[in-house]
Structures are given as C-alpha cells and as structure tokens.
Amino acid sequence: MEIVIVPDAAAGGELIASAIAGLLTRKPDALLGVATGSTPLPIYQALAAKASAGDVDVSRARICQLDEYVGLPPGHPESYRSVVLREVVEPLGLSASSFMGPDGSAEDIAAACADYDRALAGAGGVDLQLLGIGTDGHIGFNEPCSSLSSRTRIKTLTEQTRVDNARFFDSLDEVPHHVITQGIGTILEARHLVLLATGEAKAEAVALTVEGPLAAVVPASALQLHPHATVVVDEAAASKLKLTDYFRATYAAKPAWQSI
Ligand code: PGA
Known about the structure:
Layout: E1 2-6, H1 9-26, E2 31-34, H2 41-52, E3 62-65, E4 67-69, H3 80-89, E5 99-100, H4 109-122, E6 128-131, E7 153-156, H5 159-165, E8 178-181, H6 184-187, E9 192-197, H7 203-211, E10 229-234, H8 244-252
Parallel strand pairs: 1-10, 2-3, 2-6, 3-5, 6-9, 9-10
Antiparallel strand pairs: 4-8, 7-8
Bound molecules: 2-phosphoglycolic acid.
2-phosphoglycolic acid binds at residues 37-39, 132-134.
C-alpha cells in the first residue's frame, strides 16, 4: 500500500486527477469507479479543469457508482445516481449512457445487487476505484464487520454514518437506513484502488486502515490485501499515523516515471 501525504485536499484532488488523466491517456475508455461524499469533490473539479483545458480527453471515459441509498424516489437530488451525474458525469461533458450504477429504487433489491455485480464484470471490471473512508472505517457503505469477501448487497447504515450524512438532507430522519454497496470483495477486484481522506475526523480511521491489523471491524483495512492500493491523506488525516517519516521519504524518492 502506498501512502501519500499531501498538504491539503486540493493537492490530493490534483494528484489523483493527474493519475486518472494518465490512465485515460493509456486507456481512453477506462472504467472509473467514483465515490460520493464531500471528500472526492476536489478530484472531480481538478479532472474537469484538465478536461476543459484540453490536457486530457475524457470523452470515452466510463463511470460507475460505488454505492447507493435504498428507497429514495428516483431523481432525488441526494440519491448517489443524481450526485454522480451532477458532480462527475455532467462536468466532464459525458452522457448518462457512459454511467452505470445500482438501482436503489428497484422492487427486487437483491436482484438489483446481483445485476450490478454482473454489469461491472461485463464492462471489463473497474480500472480505478476512488474511495472515501467513513469515520467508522467503512469503504463504500461496507460498515464495520462487513465480510471481507462480500459482493454487492444491501447493508444497514450505522447510526454514526447516518449522522455523518445528515448534512446532505433536511434532517436525520430523512437519511435512509438501507443502502446498496459494492462489497469489499467487489471493490478489491478493481485494478487500482485510490482512497482519499482529508481532515482530522478521519485520522483514527486512516491509522487503523494503514497501520492496524487486517480486520473486518475496520473495512478499509481490506486495502492491505490489494496489490495496487494508494491512500492519499492530508496532514490532518495523517496526524495519527506512526510511520509518516517513512511514507514521506518513500514518496519523495519515487522514480519520476512512476505514477501513484
Ligand atoms: P465524506 O464521506 O467524504 O463525505 O466524509 C466519506 C465516506 O463516507 O466514505
């Protein structure tokens, strides 16, 4: 696992957007797995800026969703489908046909989950999956004690996650209890995992993820199993890591030809 400590969220966004631009140059129709929440927004802004400046051609990029609320009416502005269309697909000038996600309003949620796992595999698998991290260590909506080999399925949010996400809704009561999320096993099939964490509130979860034992109680620690996982953290999110000197020295000494 590579740990990159950046000065702030904007620098993290720029670094990851550059890696995505490099991927799209090598593979123009790469499948990008995108995360929602506040943390990845600087990545999307930096990537859209590169696209508008003509630094990267994103026109053939394909976008897929990591997770989704269950039970919000179709078109709800806080459904993750709406968020991804608004924050990623439209700013990149892509059409909705370049985008895929699980159907959180399906009658048969179990079938929608299985369909989504099949659709990801049918699309050739995810080339680069962006991840945030919950204050409880979740990735996607894989809450603590999720199976490390789980597939896309329905999960129940912890109260902590509902409280963390209430800022996107008018009240806590409106935050759904249930979600569809790519499983940890599903996420681990992506070719490159890039987790961005910013702010002091994520420091404990980051330290447990990177330096703690592999444990289902910290779902993000599953990144330790992946051959190409990159964790990008700002100074605040890095503040509880013990090996920061090593991580900084490693990144500073990285060969110029090697991307994250
Ligand atoms: P946040 O959410 O980026 O809004 O903090 C991260 C997550 O819950 O995965």
